[in-house]
Amino acid sequence: FFFLPQEIVSGESEEESNGVNLMEFSDEILLHILSYVPCTDLVLNVRRTCRKLATLCLDKSLTHTVLLQKDYKVNKDKVKQLMRDIGKEIYQLNMAGCYWLPSSTIDHVTRCKNLVKLNLSGCHVTSLRLSKMLSTLQHLRSLAIDVNPGFDASQLSSECKATLSRVSELKQTLYTPSYGVVPCCTSLEKLLLYFEILDRSREGFMLSGQLMVGESNVPHYQNLRVFYARLAPGYVNQEVVRLYLAVLSDRTPENLHAFLISAPGSFAETGATKNLLDSMARNVRLDALQLPKAWINGSGLLQHLKFNNPFYFSFSRCTLSGGHLIQRVINGGKDLKSLTSLNLSGCVHCLAPESLFRKAEDDIDSSILESLVASCCNLRHLNLSAAHHHSSESIGNHLCQLLSRLKHLLSLALPVCSITDVAATVEKPPTASNLVPQAFGRKVRIGIQTYPRNLADQANQKIESSVFWALMGSLRFLETLEIIGSSFSSAMPRNEPAIRNSLPPCVRAQSVGDSEVAAISQLTYLQSLTLAQLPNILTGSGLVNIGLQCQHLRTLSLANLGMMGKVVYMSALMDMLKHCKCLRDLRLEQPYFCAGAQFFQALSHCSSLQRLCIVSRSGTLQSDAVMSFMANCLEVIMCHMFMGESLTVCKNLQQSIVRSFQADRPALNVVIFPLLHEDLTEVIRDVPMRHLDEITLFKSRVAEEPPNLWW
Q: Which part of the chain is the F-box domain (predicted)?
C-alpha cells in the first residue's frame, strides 16, 4: 500500500490503465484500508501524497486512538512531529513498551490536551516529568506507568494530583517498593499492579519490602471494581503486595466484582488476607477470580464465595479436585454460559473426583470434563497444561472428543500426554529407542529430505480418525494453540541459573510426534503456536504442513522436540520457515542447535520477522551468518541468543550487531550470552520487560489474564 500514493502523484498508474483507480473507492473503504497503516506513516507520509488522502488521514476515526506500542521504527523526532500535527485530536495514546525512546519524549505528550487514556508502561518517566505532563491532562481517566527506583511522590504538583484524583483506571508496574501514585487516585475503579521488584540490588544487597519514607499514605479503594496483582518471583514482591491488600482487608469495596492475584511459588495466607476473603464472601458477588494456590488449597473458600455472571476463573497450580470444581464453582452443572476464560494449568486433579488417594498420572474422570464442557459452552480460552490428563479406554469419552464440543474456542493449551490415542499407546508401547532424553545418535545429513514433501503424502501416513486430528478439524477458528509436555521446564527460568537437566516426558506422551503436528495444519486461522517436549518427532514433517497451510501464523515457539542429542527436525524447520511470510516472533529452545548459514538463509524468507530468541545448551552459531541475516531482515529489532559459545564470541557478535544496525533501528535490543554463564541472571534483568515477558521467557500464555484486562 505504501507504494500506491507515489503512483497517484505521477498521474498515471496500472490501476487506471486497467480501469481501477484507488481514489475512486468510497471514503469508507479507504478509511478501512488506512486503519491498517501505522499512525506515524499516515500523518507524516501518506497524507502528503494528495489532497484526498490529506483529508482522510486526519479523519477522527484514525487520529482518535494512536498506537505506538509496536511501532518499532518510531523515534523521538517522529513522536514530536506527530504530537505537533494531531496532538489535540488524540484521545487515546498507547506508548507501552517504547523503551528506546528517551525520557524527554514524554514532554511532547503535553500537546494532547484531550487525552482520556494514556499508556506509558515500559517508558522512562521520572517523577518530575510525570508531574509536568499530568498537570496539563485534565481529561485523563486511564493511566499506565512504571514506578522505578528514585520515584518520589512528593515531587508531584497539586495540579498533577488533581488530575490523578479523576483517574478511574490505573496500571502500575513496580520496580521498587512504593505505593506509586495510588494514594493520589481517589476515584479508582480498576487497579492493575505488576510487581517486578528484585530481591537483590545490582551490588548484591538484599532489598526490603518496606515502603520508602513518606510512602505511608493510604490507598483509596472505596470505588474499586477490579483489583489485579501479578507478582514476579521473590519475597519482596510478596511483602509489598500485602501492604496494598491491608487496606482492602479493613473495608472491602461493595462494588468489587473482579479480584485477581497471580503469584508464583508459595504465597502464604495471613490473618489479614483471611479477613479479606471472609469479607468478600459476605459482601460481594464476583465475576472474575484468581487466588494464590495456598489461599485455596485445603480451605472451604470456594464454597462461600458468591458469583454473579463470571467471565474468568483461574485456579492455576491449585490442588482443586474435579469434584470440588463441579460442586463449588459450577454448582453441580449450573449454567455458566457467561464464562469465557478458564485457567486450570497445573491443576493435576481438576478432572478427577477427588485428590486424596489419587496419583497425578491416573486416568481422568470424563464425566467431570463433560459437565464442565456442557456448563461452560461459550469458553473462548481454556488452559489445561502442566498436568497429566490421561483419558481412559472408554469409547467417546476421550478428552479431545469432549473438547471438540467447545465450538467458540479461540485459544487452547493442552499437555502432550492428553492428545494421544489410548488405543495406540496400548497396542504400541514405546520402545527404549523412543524414550527421551536419549543418548547421542548417528548424525543426520541435513541436506537430505527424509520426510513427505506435501500434505497428501503425510495424510497417507496418518490415521485421520485419531481423536486429536478430529479435534483440530472441529476447532477451525482457533487462533492460539499450546501443546506442552507435562514435565517440561525451560532451560532459562526467571531469576535463577539455567537448568542443566530436564525431566523425561510422560510415558503416555511417547507416541506423540510428526502426525499430531501435521494435524495442526488444519487450523487455517492459527496465529500463535507453541510446541514443547514432543518426544516422537522423527523428522518434523508436520511443521512443513503448518507452514504451508497456516498462513496467518505470527508467533512460533518450539522447544525440546524429538531426541535431545540432535536436532532431528532442522531440515523440516528450514522448509517451513520459507512459507511463514507473516511470522513476527520465533522462539527456539533445543540443545545442540546449530544456528548456521543454512538456518539463517531459510529464516531470511520470513520477511515480517521482528523478534528472534534461541536458547540452546551446547548450541553453536556462525557470527557471519547472523550478521548476514540481520542485514537481510530489516524488520528484526530483537535478537536474543543464549548458546554454548564462549563469552568472547558472544560479546563480539553482540557489539558488531549493535554497531552495524542500531542507527537505523532505534528499538534494536540484542543479547547474546552463554546460557550456562553464572552472570546470566544479571544480563536478563536488563532486557526490556516487553521482550522478556512476551518471548524470551517460556511460559503458557493461554488464559493467563482475563480477556481485555487492559486496552
A: 19-66
Beta bridge partners of 45: none
What is the C-alpha separation between 207 and 195, in angstroms, rounded?
14
706 cis-preceded (ω within 30 degrees of 0): no
Q: Residue 463: pLDDT above 80?
A: no
Amino acid at the residue 364: I
Q: How far apart are CA 118 and CA 124, in angstroms?
A: 14
Q: Are 543 and 571 in contact (CB under 8 A)?
A: no
Residue in 599, 620, 619, 667 with CA at minimum distance from that of residue 639 = 667
Among 654, 631, 652, CA closest to 641: 654
- CA nearest 351: which of 335, 337, 363? 363
- Of 542, 534, 415, 424, nearest to 481 by C-alpha is 415
- Judged against a pLDDT cut of 80, whether residue 135 lies above it is answered with yes
Number of other CB atoms surrounding residue 240 within 10 Å: 25
Q: Are 355 and 349 in contact (CB under 8 A)?
A: yes
Q: Are 39 and 66 in contact (CB under 8 A)?
A: yes
Q: Are 93 and 115 in contact (CB under 8 A)?
A: yes
Contact 262, 346 (CB under 8 A): no
C-beta of residue 379 within 8 angstroms of C-beta of residue 449 = no
Q: Using an 8 Å Cβ cutoff, are 323 and 294 in contact?
A: no
Digit-coded pLDDT (tens) for 142-171: 999 999 999 999 999 999 999 999 999 999
Task: Tell me the CB-side half-sphere exposure of residue 316, using CA atoms within 13 A.
Answer: 30
**Which structural domains are found in the chain, ordered by start?**
25-143 (no CATH), 467-492+504-695 (3.80.10.10)
Indicate the range of 172-176, 215-219, 244-248, 624-628 predicted with least confidence.
215-219
**pLDDT of 447 strictly over 90:** no
Burial class (CB in 10 A: 0-12, 13-18, 19+), 421: buried
The conformation of residue 330, written as its DSSP 8-state character, comes to S
Whether 221 and 189 have beta carbons less than 8 Å apart is answered as no
- pLDDT for res 215: 52
- pLDDT, tens digit, 9 for 90 and up, residues 669-701: 999 999 999 999 899 999 999 999 999 999 999
Query: Which cell is 672 given?
Result: 547474546
Q: What percent of the chain has pLDDT over 90?
A: 73
Nearest to 42 by CA among 100, 94, 93, 81: 81
Query: Model pTM greater than 0.85?
Result: yes
What are the C-alpha distances in Å from 665 to residues 94, 108, 256, 638? 20, 22, 44, 10
Query: What is the identity of the amino acid at 11?
Result: G
